[in-house]
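Handout, section 4.2: multi-component inputs.
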Amino acid sequence: MSSYSVTEPSARSKSVAAVLVVLYAVITLLPLLWIISTSFKTGPDSISYPPKAIFSPTVEGYVNLFTNRTRATTEQLATMPPPANFAEEIVRKRNEVITGPSRFGERFLNSVIIGFGSTFLSIMLGTLAAYAFSRFKVPLKDDLLFFILSTRMMPPIAVAIPIFLMYRTLGLSDTHLGMILLYTGVNISLAVWLLKGFIDEIPREYEEAALIDGYTRFQAFRQVVLPQAATGIASTAIFCLIFAWNEYAFAVLLTSGNAQTAPPFIPTIIGVGGQDWPAVAAGATLFLLPVMIFTILLRKHLLRGITFGAVRK
Amino acid sequence: MPNPLDTAARATPDRIARKLRGLSDRAIAWAFVAPTIFLLLAINIFPLIWTIRLSFTNFAANKPNAEVKWVGLRNYERILTDPDIWQTMQATAHFLVWTIVLQVLIGFTLAWLINRKFRGNDLLTTLIVLPMMLSPAVVGNFWTFLYQPQIGLINYAVEFFTGIPASSFSMLGSVTLAPWAIVIVDTWMWTPFVMLICLAGLRSIPDYIYEAAEVDRASPWRQFWTMTVPMVLPFLMLAVLFRGIENFKMFDLVVQLTGGGPGDTTLLSSIELKREAFEKWRTGYSSAYAIILFVTVFGLASIYVKALNKVKER
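Output:
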């Protein structure tokens, strides 16, 4: 800065602040780095003491994550044909053979289907409602924020009781559709609130000009408002997606065999004698990494969703 | 005789013109809002009403064909006089108070430091925010590994810095340490949230206020307490409200970490609710419990919001 400013912190206070914040960041990221590094360790390396920071990496954890295995004796192994792929090779070194794929792939796919499905639905319905809330006199308008807050006060388990009964009657329990509708119902009030904020910022004059030019209301909405709100819609979508992706309470209570998502599944990964930590870490890494990357890439757009839209610029 | 509708139309000519071309605004408004309202009714309102109804019965979800008896307020009476429930409330209060205290202290400090605007502060902010974006159940499950007495990273770090042998204590297995172990993980995960809101608060303070204070020769200490803190306070209180609501109903993280143990010392109300509703299948009883929890949060939050509005008005 060329001119002197009283509000510009001094260089020294800046560097002290920087050092402290870097220190905090290192400590806070250590558990996440540990998840990723554990996923590349062998079983014995993962539970050695003192904990190993330097080790020879292996994809054993990932192989364990995606396969079911059984123990085989050395004689049995000797009679088998040579390993068909690298996964077989890794497993046989530990006197095991692959018996088939594990359920992780399915669970991950469920997370993708339910996450994207509910996000799509929340955004589609949410944008329509937000537009109406922003531009027209609609009942409930003033109660919206209060409504969001109060639905969030109900513990998920409390909501899960009647939903469980309702879904059982309707045949929606443990189905993708049921979970998509549920997550949409949970997300939509926040989505409407965030989207309303974004649409409020688009000047009404744009639409009015379009209306005068002979557009119908619906055309004006589609061709004028939607493109203007695209950034807002995208950041709300990311937020809905992350919620549905991370959700655990409903998933563990309302799904079991068919529509179970990854969060209830990952903690149940067990190996021979206790939890197979490299495999758990591998599952966690694959599950968490997309969110981490998203967060870093889209940091500017995420902020509003995180702070509930309550903190506006 | 002029038609009143026509007079209205002449007052707003573009409105009537629009009506001729397509759906009326009113119809569009309703068509746009209806699906959302339907979903909110189905997923939020209807379950709430159903829970209230169930809370007056002895219904058990695992015996759907058994006769359902109307028991009046007996479920509520039993819950409010049950000492075990009060113990879970205590555990919840301990968790709630300490997570908020720590998150406010650390979160505000971080925001204050980041607001020094050193180079690279936005990238660091993003990195610090990472934990709160992740799945609490998956992360919580991995923290049980970090907390292992023999092999865990946390115990190793404690031994490294203090010399207390790593295998001599178990963060999740000891009745005195477990309530703190869950506070630590929640603080690790959610401090960034408080930090972000505080940061927004700090950035909302216009520079000229500090310039004026500088002219008046107010000491930095005085500037901090008479200007920075009061101006960030509404933001901070908002952060506390959100964290308070979230942690009152905390389930996923703690159920993975301790499952309520050891000896019910970390049995938060949501975990207790899950046991009653989905393990013991006392649906009527747990519905009453759910309503009590809801009313408690609702009441506390309403009082708090009133206080918040007063602070904002100042």
